[in-house]
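Hey, quick one: can you model this chain's 3D structure?
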Amino acid sequence: MVKKFLPAIRGLVAHKLKELGLEQEKIAKMVGVTQASVSHYLSVNPDHFIAKLEQFGTTVDQVQSMVDDLSAAVQKGDSAANDLLYNYWRLLASSGSACSAHRTLSGGLVDCDLCVRVMVKQGISKTKYNVLAAIREACSLIEASPTFGYLIPEVYSNLVYALADATKERDVAAIPGRIIRVKGKAKVLMEPEFGSSKHMANVILSLKKLNPWVRAALNTSFDKDYLKSIEQITGNKSVYLKAYSLSKEFFDQLRKTRVSRPISAVVDPGANGYEPNIYLVGGDPVTVTNVAISASTLWYHSVRQSGSRNLQKMGLASLS
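Sure thing. Here's the predicted structure for all 320 residues.
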């Protein structure tokens, strides 16, 4: 991390800050290096640094996203930048993306499970590790989708995955801070953690009362055309909840709701202070996510072809 990953990140952030009009002395303080180091970074073609980071299993888009986020963070302060930097590194390491580079640099590694063992030492069992890994895989699919981001609601989306025997909120993993939309695309800024989403955890726990096979859920904004696309892919009719005034009434309904395998859509009509949502639920996050993304693609093309919506207002003009 220190010898390969960090210098490449610093180099690209230095280039980005230079583009923003900052002087080398200012950049050096923000990045945490000498002015001479900044001068060196700026003398190197950014493509060199990008190639270094691609060795860690990152794509060009992911690299650009990291650099944009870190460039904004270093201008806010050291703490914000460090937290974000190490969050990115932990995500790469624990997801296995850095394994190839690790083997190349270290040599002689065949069956390295260091990241798994480190997480176990931190009190996370292999079962929980697999739950977190499944969410990470699903999140990478979400971030790669050119259309799903436009279906993220005002309250943002979240993806949750429960342990098979989950009974409490801490048995359900989710994305802290949720999934947001940046420049039309979905963005996941933090690693999944257990007990990090009270609302979505209770959605799963409530549905499990009559549907013990349901372990994963992803919420999106409510859109009739999107709902049709989901039903077209799953072959299941959506389940509509009744209007409610209190959140307790919402969860009471979920506990009495039966849904169909493998994926079902539960429509939340919303209430005063509660935005209407669609909850896609299923047995695992990757399957749920694949349906959500495929449906978003169908939805997008149907919207464009029908001309029934104001694309500029929806933020879809940039995809045309």
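One thing worth noting: The first strand starts at residue 159 and ends at 162.
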